[in-house]
Amino acid sequence: MTNTDLRSAAFESKAWPYEEARKLLKRYPDGAPAKGHVLFETGYGPSGLPHIGTFNEVLRTTMVRRAFETLSDIPTRLIAFSDDMDGLRKVPGNVPNGDMLARYIGKPLTKVPDPFGTHDSFAAHNNALLRDFLDRYGFDYEFVSSTDYYTSGKFDDALRGVLRNYQAVMDIMLPTLRAERQATYSPVLPISAKSGIVLQVPVEVVDAEAGIVRFEDEGETVEQSILSGGAKLQWKVDWAMRWVALGVDYEMAGKDLIDSVIQSGKITRALGGRPPEGFNYEMFLDEKGEKISKTKGNGLSIEEWLTYGPDESLAFYIYREPKKAKSLHLGLIPRAVDDYWQFRANYHGQEAKERLGNPVHHIHNGQVPQDALPVTFGLLLNLVGVMGGDATKDQVWGYLANYLPGATAADYPELDKLIGYALAYARDFVAPTLVRRKPEGVEVAALERLDTDLAALPADASAEDIQNIVYEIGKSGGFAELRDWFKALYETLLGSSQGPRMGSFIALYGVANTRKLIAEALAK
């Protein structure tokens, strides 16, 4: 596909990144803006450990950015903004040394010690986790710290703008608040020179150009500049100020922030700016259907997913159906891995229109590798599950020789990586649940017949030959439905209620080894 063909197809594609990119393209019908580029932003609150919901925004925003670059020659930038000057509101439930953290409630996250003892602050620790992963995945982004921008004076002009338009901002915010909150609300949060706490107190503008405000701190009336780190803004106002100060053109947000996007957009206009384009995605939920929270620690960490599945499987799961609420737990990984590889296998045989709608096109920015996976991740999990929790990668490759004669890790590096993930996943989640039951009724005779038929197979029998044998036994073996036979095979031989295509599994595990499983089942 030439660049011209790609651009033409992108203008027609219904894939959501291209739909978003076309919306952004209309923002500048006359070409590049005065700043010379289109700015994408993602935000992150480092009050807790990063989870996949955090990574989600950077990945999806990057997909829109790449789609925009397909449609336009206007330069782009992506900022990953950390709200690390926020005050610590409560102690997260998934970090050590909670008692120590409790003494810093209200102080900026960059002033809170790192409970892990590895960085200068709690914010620095969490920022580092996020950046490490973004770097590992190869994102093209610029990391921006709220603390750095406030304290260096980079936001000073925009802060003066907030003070100049203080009443207009109040008129936007107050109707959205409860009566008791209205009495104490201020868009500006001074940082106490006495305690270092981010104060939630009413303020009075004294001199907008000098940045001076007046407020009460521990019973004393104080006049203090909000410039160069003397204060931060309430987050909806902060969001709008940032959009104006940085010239943000695109930022997405979760469905739970729709009202915040509306209010921040109004404040942006009051400050003389233009709200960015964007869309609201649905939330990730945990296994109980509850919203994932950094402070509750009820979601997956980035590291957890990547212990059991490759980067691409995570990206695949995040890409699909962004406006549909989805569960996010470790049980999803095997399906995500196999679905990713299925879409990847289909890609190079598709027409341009279908390619641009294929998730792997957006995961790989159109540079989709052409190699295929000879066995599924699900099949690997079944194999490793039967081998037991102490199985090694070399042992798995030994079994793979039944299926791929002469194959080595050097021949199939992607498969070799998947074996490592399969070993970890099977050890931690599959092996503890496997219980092989005793065959009953017609299952006994069917297994005996399967053993006899397998014994009679020639050495070069294919997976399809074996599958035909299994299928015929199921049809003629007295089972009410064919699926009852397959379920019996899974439960008596593999210890699970679900399983792989048995012809493929037997070819992979080996006929002799499978006959041993049958013998063990019949001996129960």
From TrEMBL:
It holds the Pfam family tRNA-synt_1f. A motif ('HIGH' region) lies at residues 46-54. One of its GO terms (molecular function) is tRNA binding. Keywords: Aminoacyl-tRNA synthetase, ATP-binding, Cytoplasm, Ligase, Nucleotide-binding, Protein biosynthesis. GO terms for biological process: lysyl-tRNA aminoacylation. ATP binds at residue 294. It comes from the Bacteria. Its EC number is 6.1.1.6. One of its GO terms (cellular component) is cytoplasm. It is found in: Cytoplasm. It catalyses: tRNA(Lys) + L-lysine + ATP = L-lysyl-tRNA(Lys) + AMP + diphosphate. Its main location: cytoplasm. Belongs to the class-I aminoacyl-tRNA synthetase family. HAMAP family: Lys_tRNA_synth_class1. This is Lysine--tRNA ligase. The lineage of its organism: Bacteria, Pseudomonadati, Pseudomonadota, Alphaproteobacteria, Sphingomonadales.
